[in-house]
Design a protein that fits this description.
The protein is mainly α. It contains 16 helices and two strands. It has a single domain, classed as Na+/H+ antiporter like domain (Na+/H+ antiporter like fold). The relative contact order is 0.17. One of its GO terms (cellular component) is plasma membrane.
C-alpha cells in the first residue's frame, strides 16, 4: 500500500516511467544533435564554469556526468549497502548464485570486446559492455513481465546490484589517474564527518522534532556532501565515487529517507538529462564498414555477451549450489540475461571515460551503446513476454472454473 501511495504522489518513482523517460531523453538527444540546432547545443555542452580562486573548472557536460550522476551513484550505494546488510545479499549463501551469474555477465562481454578489438589500441573500452542499467531492466520487467514470479525480480535486482558494484570498482581502479592524496585526505575527512552527522539524525517523531530541529543537521550534511564531491573531483578520482562513498557511510535510516526524497529527482531529471547529453552524437556519414572495431565490439558484446554470460553463469551457479533457494531454471534465467544487456546509463558513462582522449570513438561508442541496448530491449521484451505468458497460463490452470484459453 505504501508503494502504491508513493506512486500516486510521484509517478517518477515508477520503474516504467523511469525507463520510458530514459529512452525518450536519449532519442531526443540523438535527434537534436543531428538537426540545425545540434552545433549550438554541442557548443553549450562544452561551455566551462570556472572559479579561479579555488582552482575549479568544469564543462557543462562534465558537470552532468561527474556532478549530477554522483547523486545517482549515491542512491545506488545506499541500496547496495542495504542489500548487503539486511537484503538479498546479506549472506554468502544468498549472494553466491547472483554473484556467479553477474560474474559471467562481466567476463563474457569483456572477452567478446577484447577479441573483436584485438590488434587495435581500443582495448580500454572493455568495461563498456559489462554494465547493466537497473532502472531500464526493472522498467522492462514491469511492463512486459507483470505475471513473472517474485523470485525472478529478486534475482534480477541482486544481479544488477552486484553489477553496479563491479561498475563502481572499475571506475575507481581503471579510470583514475594522477591521484592527489592531499585532496583524497580532505575528501575522507568530509565523508567521515558526513557519516557522523547522519547518525545524529533521529527517526521522524513530532516530539523529537519539537525538541531538536533536524534541518540544521540536514543542511550540514548537504554542505559536507558538496565538499566531499569537490575534494574528490580535485583529487583526480572520478567524482561519482564521492556519491558512492557518501552512500556507504550514511546511517541506514537517514539513508533510506534520502533515497526516498532523491529517487523522483534521479528518475525524472538526473538520469534523463544525462541520457540526453550522452546521446548528443552526430551520426557520421560513413558506410558501416568504416566504423571502428570498438563500435562493432560494443554492439555485439552488450546484447549477446550479457545473454550468454549471465545464462552460463546462472546455470553454473545452479549446478554448484543445486537445490539452494533462489536458483533459477534456464527458462527463467533467459529473461534476466536478456535484460542484463541493457547497458544504457552506466555503459554510456564508461564509454566517455574509456575514450576520453578519442572524441570520434566516443561518438561511435555512444551509438553502439544505444543500438546494443536497443537490441537488448527488443530481445528482452520478447523473452520476458514469452515467459510471462507461461506463468499466466499456469495461473489460469490452477484457478478452478477458468475456461481454457484459445491459445491452449
Amino acid at each position: 500500500m505504501q508503494h502504491t501511495d508513493d506512486l500516486r504522489r510521484s509517478p517518477f518513482r515508477s520503474e516504467r516511467v523511469a525507463a520510458l523517460l530514459l529512452l525518450l531523453a536519449a532519442v531526443i538527444g540523438l535527434v537534436v544533435a543531428n538537426t540545425a540546432v545540434g552545433p549550438a547545443v554541442l557548443d553549450l555542452m562544452d561551455e566551462h564554469f570556472a572559479v579561479p580562486a579555488i582552482g575549479f573548472d568544469i564543462s557543462l557536460s562534465h558537470l552532468i556526468s561527474d556532478g549530477l550522476l554522483a547523486v545517482f551513484f549515491f542512491i545506488v550505494a545506499v541500496e547496495l549497502r542495504r542489500e548487503l546488510v539486511i537484503g538479498e545479499l546479506n549472506s554468502l549463501a544468498k549472494a553466491s548464485l547472483p554473484a556467479i551469474a553477474a560474474l559471467g555477465g562481466v567476463v563474457v562481454p569483456a572477452a567478446i570486446y577484447l577479441v573483436m578489438t584485438a590488434g587495435t589500441d581500443l582495448a580500454a573500452g572493455w568495461p563498456i559492455p559489462t554494465a547493466t542499467d537497473i532502472a531500464f531492466a526493472l522498467g522492462i520487467l514491469a511492463v512486459f513481465g507483470s505475471a513473472m514470479p517474485t523470485r525472478v525480480r529478486v534475482f534480477l535486482m541482486a544481479l544488477a546490484v552486484l553489477d553496479d558494484l563491479v561498475a563502481i570498482l572499475i571506475i575507481a581502479f581503471f579510470f583514475t589517474a594522477g591521484v592527489q592524496f592531499a585532496w583524497i585526505g580532505a575528501a575522507a575527512i568530509a565523508i567521515t564527518a558526513f557519516g557522523a552527522v547522519s547518525r545524529l539524525l533521529r527517526p521522524r517523531s513530532p516530539w523529537v522534532l519539537r525538541r531538536r530541529p533536524q534541518w540544521p543537521l540536514i543542511a550540514v550534511m548537504i554542505v559536507l556532501g558538496v565538499l566531499a564531491w569537490f575534494f574528490v573531483y580535485q583529487s583526480g578520482v572520478h567524482a561519482t565515487i564521492a556519491g558512492v562513498a557518501l552512500g556507504f557511510v550514511i546511517a541506514r535510516r537517514p539513508g533510506g529517507r534520502s533515497v526516498h526524497a532523491l529517487e523522483p529527482w534521479s528518475n525524472g531529471l538526473i538520469l534523463p538529462v544525462f541520457a540526453f547529453s550522452a546521446a548528443l552524437v552526430v551520426i557520421p556519414a560513413v558506410a558501416p564498414a568504416q566504423f571502428s572495431p570498438a563500435f562493432w565490439a560494443i554492439l555485439v558484446a552488450l546484447p549477446v555477451g550479457k545473454l550468454v554470460g549471465i545464462t552460463a553463469g546462472g546455470l553454473i551457479g545452479a549446478s554448484i549450489f543445486r537445490g539452494r533457494p533462489g536458483a533459477l531454471r534456464w527458462p527463467d534465467l533467459l529473461p534476466v540475461a536478456a535484460l542484463g544487456g541493457v547497458g544504457f546509463t552506466v555503459s554510456l558513462l564508461m564509454n566517455e571515460l574509456a575514450f576520453s582522449e578519442h572524441p570520434l570513438v566516443v561518438d561511435e561508442g555512444t551509438l553502439a551503446v544505444l543500438l546494443g541496448s536497443g537490441v537488448a530491449i527488443v530481445v528482452s521484451a520478447c523473452v520476458v513476454s514469452w515467459r510471462a505468458r507461461h506463468y499466466r497460463r499456469q495461473a489460469r490452470e490452477r484457478t478452478p472454473g477458468t475456461a481454457p484459453s484459445a491459445a491452449g
